[in-house]
Automatic annotation (TrEMBL):
Gene3D superfamilies in the record: P-loop containing nucleotide triphosphate hydrolases
Protein name per its UniProtKB record: NitT/TauT family transport system ATP-binding protein
A Pfam family matched in the record: ABC_tran
Matches recorded under InterPro entries: AAA+_ATPase (IPR003593), ABC_transporter-like_ATP-bd (IPR003439), ABC_transporter-like_CS (IPR017871), ABC_transporter_ATP-bind (IPR050166), P-loop_NTPase (IPR027417)
Stated family: Belongs to the ABC transporter superfamily.
Protein's organism: Thiopseudomonas denitrificans
GO molecular function: ATP binding; ATP hydrolysis activity
PANTHER family according to UniProt: ALIPHATIC SULFONATES IMPORT ATP-BINDING PROTEIN SSUB, TAURINE IMPORT ATP-BINDING PROTEIN-RELATED
Domain ABC transporter as annotated: residue spans: 6-227
Length: 265
């Protein structure tokens, strides 16, 4: 697989006259997972929509070389009139793959994600929230996206289900070399899943710092994840981003953005 790199350079975005993204630069290479972390309103979803091509930015440069793209959002957004199976298989329809093959592939992947044949015949309203999230994840993964954009897809789930879906996602991403950009409010989720974490702050939305995670995924146990998350929470720029010290964010007073060397021990 050829190496590709998604690049955002000096990007700005305004809704009307309100600037919501200010001078955003980032890059993510094939097979890497980048987490965008920050408080509500700092422009994470806007940035993801721009990267997905759903929104045109006001200024700056975006280079998005990945061809097959899939998105997964906090709400599963399933089509209510289609069964779980048809919802999952939907993405393959555009590729002119026969119905039988679409369904076979969907059943196989759904099985890996813990969905039974019975579940697959149900309509979304007949499934629990957790099942609907599995269906949405299966739908996103079935098209084998080169780039997967995740907007807090796990935030409404209980911790057991989250951990299970994290594992399934990681396994798929590693097997397929998928590039992932994920939004989360949950620093521990970012530490668990990402290769690099971008800390954002609001008003206007901007990047405060990037924290590369040096520890290979295979060596990230719960202890390391917990310790690293605590270390990150103590970083002044993370505290500033989440406004943990009651610090009003003021451009003039802000420390200069620094690239932190990573929290791995
Ligand atoms: N379509 C829109 N029109 C005008 N303003 C918008 C629009 N969408 C978002 N905004 C504003 O832009 C800012 C950034 O919103 P955005 O949803 O990108 O932030 P976020 O970091 O993803 O927030 P959250 O974590 O709560 O989802 C917010 O102030 C929001 O009110």
């Amino acid at each position: 697989m050829s190496m590709k790199q998604l690049k955002v350079d000096n990007l700005f975005h305004k809704y009307g006259i309100v600037e919501v993204l200010n001078n955003i630069s980032l890059s993510v290479s094939s097979g890497q997972t980048l987490a965008l972390v920050g408080p509500s309103g700092c422009g994470k979803s806007t940035l993801l929509h721009i990267i997905a091509g759903l929104l045109t930015h006001s200024e700056g440069h975006l280079e998005q070389p990945f061809e097959q793209l899939a998105c997964m959002f906090q709400s599963p957004r399933l089509l209510p009139w289609k069964t779980a199976l048809d919802n999952i298989a939907l993405g393959l329809k555009a590729r002119k793959i026969s119905r039988l093959e679409r369904q076979q592939r969907a059943i196989e992947l759904a099985g890996q994600l813990g969905l039974t044949r019975d579940d697959l015949d149900k309509y979304p309203h007949e499934l629990s929230g957790g099942m609907q999230s599995r269906v949405a994840l299966a739908r996103a993964l079935l098209v084998s996206p080169e780039l997967l954009l995740l907007d807090e897809p796990f935030s409404a789930l209980d911790i057991g289900l989250k951990l299970e879906l994290y594992q399934l996602l990681r396994r798929h991403v590693e097997e397929h070399g998928t590039t992932v950009i994920m939004i989360t409010h949950d620093l521990m989720e970012a530490v668990r899943l990402a290769d690099s974490i971008l800390m954002m702050a609001p008003e206007p939305g901007r990047i405060l710092a990037e924290f590369p995670m040096a520890q290979p995924h295979a060596l990230r146990d719960d202890n390391w994840i917990y310790r690293t998350s605590v270390e990150l929470m103590q970083q002044p720029l993370v505290r500033l981003g989440f406004q943990l010290d009651g610090v009003g964010i003021n451009h003039e007073d802000m420390p200069q953005p620094v690239a932190h060397g990573g929290c791995a021990p």
